[in-house]
Amino acid sequence: MKKITRLLFLAVAILFTGMTMAQSTVSGTIMDAEINAPLPGANIIEKGTTNGVSSNFDGEFTITTSTTNATLVISFVGYGTKTVTVTGNQDLGNIVLTSDNTLEEVVIVGSGVIDLAEDRTTPIAVSTIKASEIQQKAGNFDLPALLKTTPSIQVVQNGGFGESQMFLRGFDQTNTAFLLNGQPINGMEDGKMYWSNWQGVTEVANAIQVQRGLGASKLAISSVGGTVNIVTKTIDKKEGGFVEQMVGNDNYIKSTAYFSTGVSDKGWSFSGLLGHWQGDGYVDYTQGQGQTYFLSVGYQAGENHSLNFLLTGAPQWHAAAGGARISEFLESDRGRRYNSWNFDGVDSPNTLHGGAYPGGRNIYHKPVANLNWDWTINDKSSLSTVLYGSMGRGSFAQAITDRNTDEFLYVRGSNNNHNWAGLVTSYNNQLTENLNLNIGADVRLYNGFHFRDIREFVNPNINSVSANSAYNGGDYQLTEAGGINPWEVFFNPNTDHTQRFGYDYEEKINYAGVFGQLEYVKDNFSAFFQGAVSNQSHVRTEFLNAELEGVSEDSEKVNNLGFNLKAGAAYEISSMHKVFANVGYYSRQPFHDTLYQNDRSSNELLSPEAENEEITGFEVGYQFNGGRRISANLNAYHTTWDNVVKYRSNGRDGVDFLSFQTLGVKQVHYGVELEVMTRPLDNLRLNGFLSLGEWQFKDNATQRTFNQDGTQVGDDEEIVIDGFSVGEAAQVTAGINGSYEFLPRTSFDAAWNWNNDIFSSGSLELAPLSLPSYDTVDAGFSYKMLVGKNNQKSIQFRLNVNNVFDEVYLEAVNGNTQASANPEENYKGVNTSNNGRFGYGRTWNTSIRFNF
Predict the structure, then answer these.
(1) What tens digit of pLDDT does each residue of 435-444 get?
(2) Is the pTM of this model over 0.90?
(3) Would you state the torsion angle of the CA atoms of residues 172, 174, 177, 179, taken in this order, to the nearest 10 degrees?
């Protein structure tokens, strides 16, 4: 019996040894071709079997094949499939997958329209977020929330859907350039970004690249703090798609479906996405809902020409969160979800869940279309062009009450409509082996329409309003109501001047610029020089009561010439070490809203007229590449923003409305940024960053006061602001984030963020308040299950929990009232009579997604 047992054991051992000898261990790293970044979540399948693995967060994988000679099929949704034959144990190194996205091939490969950092050898301070991370972590937040784990960025939520605000190196969104597939999308009038207009962009984004400081953009754009490039998906060469369902806190629901036909034999391709979201909002009575649509049509005309048409939009409405004194939030029956801006007991179809009517509601629909053409002229030259356009229609709907009785009368719409068209074209030529030339043009034509009207009659006893009683109108009746449905507002905008009041004007802003870049690369040295020059013209036309009085009035036409110059150099000390330095100067034209008097019914220019702002930037950097285990970036910067005009108003003080114009403001921002990326273990990623900034006003400024008619009150006065800290954004930030894949395709990730040296906003002439620091922790869990033939399909599960420990913190404070001697009148050292808003508590979302 023992002999038989030994023989059986020997047979099993021989069989096991044979099986082991027949297996191979194969490893490698999956890379994205376009921006040379790891591609997590790619499928690696042994052909003819169900044996498969997924690449980790750094694109790395290890698979044990069932035979010594095996064929691996490597795929990822939205990318071309690669087949690799392996023999025995081996490391395949980098395996590069090319995006199936025709538009990305147009605008990213080479020196196309989108200025990604990797298109230039001379480096900049940059962070890139890929589609897989966007898909996992976007959840029920706006796009800026994805960027808070990068250096020198702080994001505040501002209480409602689409109301997020991002600060980059201490500059707000008006001084950060945002680009969508090469199209500038900051407001032409004031440079502002309204994320409610872009609620669906996370659904279609393939990459988001944050370029801090001078950046790589060749356009003459308002990139004082930096540039954010949003690259959307377009066409997959391979047929496929996904459906996803997400739910989250406060009754949040989002449903999305996407499908692509792939590229036909004749070069045609189609893809489309539809989505719907709705939720109650974290803050009380901030409900919202909207849709997302996306359509892309591509055509490959031979080997040298690619065309793509894209249309996307995100119609939505959401209720706004009203500001309040800190003391109001601290009352026992309120808390950080408190919203001061709502009316109870209103009988209307548009009353929110809970019986309240919102004091403010944002309604907007902004479809964007672009046509891209990529022409490969020859081996050394190419031309990339994007023609784009958008039509924005919508308003901020505000509940209006009787000043004497507080009776709710009607809902007033402050409409901001526009038609926008533009063209960006870029020609690239490899002049010599070492010298590359890129030149192009940037043209933008903008027509904005601004007026007030009636959105809804709420009081059953009122079906018309005198324009004269509705603030600065004429002697006529307002009888039409435009509603709050963004689809209805888009297709039926109010074009009747006799149904407008308060203000009614339009502006035409035309912009034309040319740009160029010359880059020299030889051996370990590279250098570049960039320049752009542009002209921006402004005309404002007043229409208030025009059809009744038979007149309209055009303002004087204003032309402003602006330019920028940038240069830099880099030296690669070795394969592990690179240093670089960049310098730039911008002469930036003032925004349209900076040129005209505060009174919206006046075409008068400010006197003196605003002049060009002057921005000077210096930066140096060091990059360390220690291989797959560790890499690091160290940057130092110094930015001077000079000759700035700033505005603020005090609201209504009795019957007086005062606004303040401050001339000659100068800010100096400098700091150091350290970013470290590590891989201590094959299944563990651990990254961290530290940003140390010092942002202050320098020198004093001149302030002027105006009444509501735009007439100056009193004389110019000097205000002492030298040495004051710049408010709103945290000047010191730090964070640690990582992920651990504890089982195949199963991972846990977390991020800790700390914000310190924060100051209040408020009256420029008064010292800002020092606010308490705060930190938050976010966490997530992911699982991906391979299904279908050859495991080519997958089901993904994702859970996000934000502010895991439910930290209570002041997100922002507006005010300059110093701390009281009575401790009960302060909150963490801040006087509670100041206006402020607390950040969100613990929130969550979870999703299931089927990729096919």
Answers:
(1) 999 999 999 9
(2) no
(3) 110
